Amino acid sequence: MDKTLHIIGGGMAGSEAAWQAANMGLRVVIHEMRPKVATFAHRTGHLAEMVCSNSFRSDDDEQNAVGLLHWEMRAAGGLIMEMAQKHRLPAGGALAVDRDPFAESVTAALTAHPNVSVDYNEITTLPDTGHWIIATGPLTSEGLGRAIAAETGTDALAFFDAIAPIVYADTIDMSIAWEQSRYDKGETEAEQKAYINCPMTKDQYEAFIDSLLAADKTEFHEGETAGYFDGCLPIEVMAERGRETLRFGPMKPVGLTNPHQPDKKPYAVVQLRRDNALGTLYNIVGFQTKMKYGAQTAVFKMIPGLQDASFARLGGIHRNTFINSPTLLDDQMRLRSRPHIRFAGQITGVEGYVESAAMGLLAGRMAAAEILGHPLISPPQDSAMGALIHHITGGAEAKTFQPMNVNFGLFRPIDGLKGGRRGRKDRYKAYTDRAKAAWTEWLAGSNAMAAQ
């Protein structure tokens, strides 16, 4: 029997799946169309290139579900977490990385692995034989997308994400802006000053909202619709929901003190987060947008401190592809109609780098174990991995299925714990303690099987 695992897509999920399967002794071929076939968002041909934010979000494994997912991936020897730690940037309590060295390191690790090879060609049809994982992510090619839609009977596979702009740090006016993480979060001075903050008065905020609403936006092609994931809404879409929406979202003025005017509380604050190790680039946090380029420059320069800003990259809009996993996949992430094909990553309906890589980790381990003759059971629902895979393969309502970040709302309740905000700290700690025990036990069994 052929013991080669083929993975279509070399993003976060595909890279992690390849690493896990290769370390279990399987021969792995990654099929990555870049750089021969370019996409709107990618700049390089590196594996695991970060196309949007450079953050893996919270690294708190006791009070945050995504931080717990970090912990589980590290426990499983995850490549993505290893390289993220290697190229970590100050970001308060978040895990942000220097994006280009990170992708270069992931690529180098995989191409140096004796069990891994990379085929730089586009695949546009579903394979009839062999062992496959489809991990093509939000920018699945048109040809493969059509093939998936034809197999699954899905009328539409896409919704739209938007990309935030990046500013050159030396063009930010620091006589107006200041460095501070919200609530001074972080153990070091670098962590506590990981963000640059631009304050707004009420009049400045109102003028900004007026310009944002009036700006020229990217139009969709005929027949396209925009169904945005709520966790990655363009700022103009948020503004259209109410003039105060941004002030209670990415522009909330809480946990910050302006040293230039310590006695004056800003009406709103725009935050920028470091985007590379040199500190020369900063991305505007939460400012994904579908404004046209000319409009972006004019509107963003209305932000105090950015009036003379130069942009290394302006925002943009891109398609995000996902399937209705609750109806199409079993608990091993196999396509029910073609069980030799698994899906992993964002295309399964998880949202975010970490969640995508986590589903790649599971798909790679499950595929390798099955090929080697020692199938794995799905991870326990009480773990972060288990909660997420349970959600996408059956826990979610199929009729209203939308991309989902990992969150404690996916976890089974623990009896006897106080509900509401007051009981949240104890409740979250109980969730993470239970999850770590469940994941450790499952992982030990998984590793024992792999060693047989």
UniProtKB/TrEMBL annotation:
Chief place where the protein resides: cytoplasm
Coiled-coil regions, chain positions: none
Listed name of the protein: Methylenetetrahydrofolate--tRNA-(uracil-5-)-methyltransferase TrmFO
Binding positions (FAD): G9, G10, G11, M12, A13, G14
HAMAP family assigned to the protein according to its UniProt record, in alphabetical order: TrmFO
Xref: InterPro entries: FAD/NAD-bd_sf, MnmG-rel, MnmG-rel_CS, MnmG_N, TrmFO
Record-linked Gene3D superfamilies: FAD/NAD(P)-binding domain
Family per similarity comment: Belongs to the MnmG family. TrmFO subfamily.
Cofactor: FAD
Function statement: Catalyzes the folate-dependent formation of 5-methyl-uridine at position 54 (M-5-U54) in all tRNAs. NAD-binding protein involved in the addition of a carboxymethylaminomethyl (cmnm) group at the wobble position (U34) of certain tRNAs, forming tRNA-cmnm(5)s(2)U34.
Pfam families hit by this protein: GIDA
Residues covered by the MnmG N-terminal domain: 5-373
Location in the cell: Cytoplasm
EC number: 2.1.1.74
UniProt entry keywords in alphabetical sequence: Cytoplasm, FAD, Flavoprotein, Methyltransferase, NAD, NADP, Transferase, tRNA processing
Catalytic activity entry: uridine(54) in tRNA + (6R)-5,10-methylene-5,6,7,8-tetrahydrofolate + NADPH + H(+) = 5-methyluridine(54) in tRNA + (6S)-5,6,7,8-tetrahydrofolate + NADP(+); uridine(54) in tRNA + (6R)-5,10-methylene-5,6,7,8-tetrahydrofolate + NADH + H(+) = 5-methyluridine(54) in tRNA + (6S)-5,6,7,8-tetrahydrofolate + NAD(+)
